[in-house]
Structures are given as C-alpha cells and as structure tokens.
Amino acid sequence: MPSSTVENYLKHILLLSEGAQDLVSMGDLAVALAVVPGTATTMIKALAREGYVAHQPRQGVSLTPTGRTVALSVLRKHRLVETFLVNVLKMDWASVHAEAEQLEHSISDEVLDRLDALLGYPATDPHGDPIPSRKGKLNFQVYASLATCALKQPLRIVRITEQTTEFLQFADQNHLLPGSTLIVTGRNLPAGLATIKTTGTRALALSITAAGKILVEPLRR
Amino acid sequence: MPSSTVENYLKHILLLSEGAQDLVSMGDLAVALAVVPGTATTMIKALAREGYVAHQPRQGVSLTPTGRTVALSVLRKHRLVETFLVNVLKMDWASVHAEAEQLEHSISDEVLDRLDALLGYPATDPHGDPIPSRKGKLNFQVYASLATCALKQPLRIVRITEQTTEFLQFADQNHLLPGSTLIVTGRNLPAGLATIKTTGTRALALSITAAGKILVEPLRR
DNA sequence: TAAATTATTTTGACTACTCAAAATAGCGCA
DNA sequence: TGCGCTATTTTGAGTAGTCAAAATAATTTA
Questions:
Q1: Of B91, B111, B114, Cβ closest to residue A114
Q2: Which chain B positions have a beta carbon within 8 Å of A85's beta carbon?
Q3: Cα distance between residue A71 and residue A6, in whole Å
Q4: Taking a C-beta distance cutoff of 8 angstroms, is the pair B158, B128 a contact?
Q5: Which domains are delineated in chain A?
Q6: pLDDT tens digits for A145-189?
Q7: B89 vs A contacts (CB less than 8 Å)
Q8: Which of A195, B53, B92, B102 has the fewest CB atoms in 10 Å of its CB?
Q9: Do A99 and B110 touch (CB under 8 A)?
C-alpha cells in the first residue's frame, strides 16, 4: 500500500503531465509538492525502484502503468470528495480543495463507491474537472480557454483549471463558474489583457494568464 | 498540530481510562496501539515533554487537560464519522470502525460540524457510544451489562463496548443492537455462561465476558 | 528475606521523509 | 572551443516513529 506521500508524488506527476508533455521535470514537481528539488530527486529514485515511475536522469519522470493506476485512484477520490463537500455538505466552492487534499488519502474504495452512488455518478467535480472512472478512465478533453477562443462568440464555461482559494473566490465573485455563459469582447496581447462580458451584462478585464485557466465551449454546438 | 500518531496515543489513553482507573499502564497502551512496550514508553516520554500527558514512571500515564481536549476531539470525529457511514452511506454496522479509524485524522472541524448538522446532532454513534460535544463534554454514564444486571427483567440494549468486526457481526446476527429488548434468563458463573431471551422469543447462550460488553438499561424507567 | 517472575525502561539500530549546501551535467552563447 | 548559467543530483545530517534485545525495577512467591 503506497503511503500518502507516495500518493501525492504520483498524483502531481499525473496532473503536471495532463496537458501533454510526457516528461515532468524535477523542478516543476518540487514546486508542486512544496519540497526542495533534491528531495524530489531522491524520492523519484525510490519510486522508480518500486516500479511506480520511469526516471530519465536530468530529463524528467513519467508514470508507469502501475503508477498511473494509483494516481488516477487518488485523483478520483479527490474529485469525488470535493463534489461531496460542495453538493451535500454545501461547503464553499473555493475552500474544498484543501479538505479533499487530506481526505483523498484516507478514504477506502468501499466508501468511495457509496459516495459516488449518493452523488449520482457525477462526471465532473464542482470546478469542471473530470472525475476518473472506477476502472481508471480519465475523460480528457481539449477545450479552448478564454485566452485562446474566438472573440464575440457566446460561450459556456466548462472548467476552471486552478485550485487556489484566491483564484476560485475571484471566479465565484464574478460569476465565472462552470455553466455560466459569457463572451470575450476583446484581447490586448501587448497589455496582456482579455475583456469579457458575462450574461449579467457586466464587463470585466482579466489577465491573459488568468483567462487561460478558464476553459470554455461554444454555446450552441 | 499533533500528528495522527500522537492523536492515536491520546485517544487510546482516553478510551483505556474511560471506565475508571486514572493511570493507564504501558502494557495496556502498547497492546491497544499494536506496538511493542518500549515504543510506547519512548513515545509517552515525548508526549509528556510536549505537555499532552503526565507520566508516572513505572506507574502509568494520564492525560493533561490539553491532551484530553485533543483526545475528545478525535473521539468525536471517530464517532460522528461512524454515524455518517452507517446512517447516510448505509454501510455495514460491523465494518465502519476501521474506516473511521483512518478518517478521524484527516477531517477538519468545519467538515465535522456540517456532518454533525446533517446527522441531526446525534448523541451516540451506531454502537451506542456517546459522542463528545463540540466543547468536549463526554456524556459518560454507568450502565449495567448483561453480565451484571438483574435477572428476568425486561431490558433495552444501550451500548456495545467492543469494536471488532467479528463481535459486531455476531451481535448483529443475533439482533443484539442498541434499542433491542431482551431479558437475561439465567447465569452460570462456574461455567462462565449467561443465557438470554430476545423479544423474538429466541434463546441464546453467551460467555460472561461477551455479556459484559453489552450494556443495558431497565425497560420501563 | 531472598529468589523468581513480570512489567517497564533503555540502548542501538532501522525506515521514510525531509533540508541545506556542495558537486555535476547540459545548455546557450561568444 | 571553452565560459558561464541553470537545473539536477549527491552528500551529510536531522526528525518522527518503530523494533529487538538487554538492563532495571517492582512485585510475587517461597
């Protein structure tokens, strides 16, 4: 049984490789886990010995099938717990991430399955992040973000890819939740700004970086 | 913030001193925690240094007010989680103890309060064990057990003071749950047996040891 | 009262994880 | 071709918790 430290390493490798690149650097991993780079290297060597990851020295690290299975299971627990905390316990959207971070390591598969049923087998968590299936399938879909989508098109928010309380609170206060609709009225790349308009006719400016964290799909598809 | 190891030590000291004796021996504590006695001694010395316990060398250990507060909080989490697992997730009465043992260390006060409200502020868990209040009051009440109560009196089970899956399954199968009614028809102390009759008119023999773990109160009070 | 039994404590060692700081490798660039 | 920058790895050391086994204290028994 992997320790919760091991689970965290594997989960973060999965998250960091989500977008695309197959090799996660020690630097990125160390930042994600809030440890110094040397610690990450040491730990990764141990995880490689135990068959959870493949380590290309000085290149980066990737998950083995075994490691990926563990990581997906942890991610499933994390996202189902978040959904439970928001949907059933009515907790604040922005603060459940830290809670789930703890709970994901101590919840059994039995409890998880019952939670899943209680919630009606949700496909995504409250932030729009896809929940891996029991058998470890992660429904990964490539969406445009507010930084890359077409201008002046009606859009629906499908996902917020950022877990910090501050960002989520900002999103919440400005009605930028999964399901909300809006249009991007313009972009000023030199200034690094995007301007949007939500259905409540409110205009809002956003940095391109922040806009990149809000994923959308065209409204009528 | 005490580690989950520390929380476990404190919780078990509280449980072992519940009945009465103020000093818990290293031997008993080591058995409860499944460690060797030397480990318990070492750990207790550290806990004493940190102000959680008072250690009388070669006599035993007791909780300081600080330690007791921590222990009660853990016990509250444990029992509320058990109640949630049984009442909401409909899990098996006999198996929730092990689950709660993990969850009790990773649940926040915020989540706990909401769970408490969801459950309707229960006074006891599914086994009849009293749930400490938020402010750390433990409603400890002395009940008779099937080993000590009067014979041929109608009784109601209020509590099962044993958490092993096997015992709880046995109790479940024989309708010995909190709330069930029965009478003790006789006792044979030399043989170490008690005979009882449940409302379903079934007769059953039980060791005195087992009988001592089932606490009861007289039916009409 | 002394010997024997039993419980507790001490000692030395090990695992898992971490950091600080020095050593090394790979890279871009002149 | 070699210099310097940056990321990575290595080294040495520390913390938390654990065990095995030897040492010590207390209690029982004779």
A1: B91
A2: 111
A3: 9
A4: yes
A5: 4-63 (1.10.10.10), 72-140 (1.10.10.10), 144-218 (2.30.30.90)
A6: 999 999 999 999 999 999 888 999 999 889 999 999 999 999 998
A7: 111, 114-115, 118
A8: B92
A9: yes
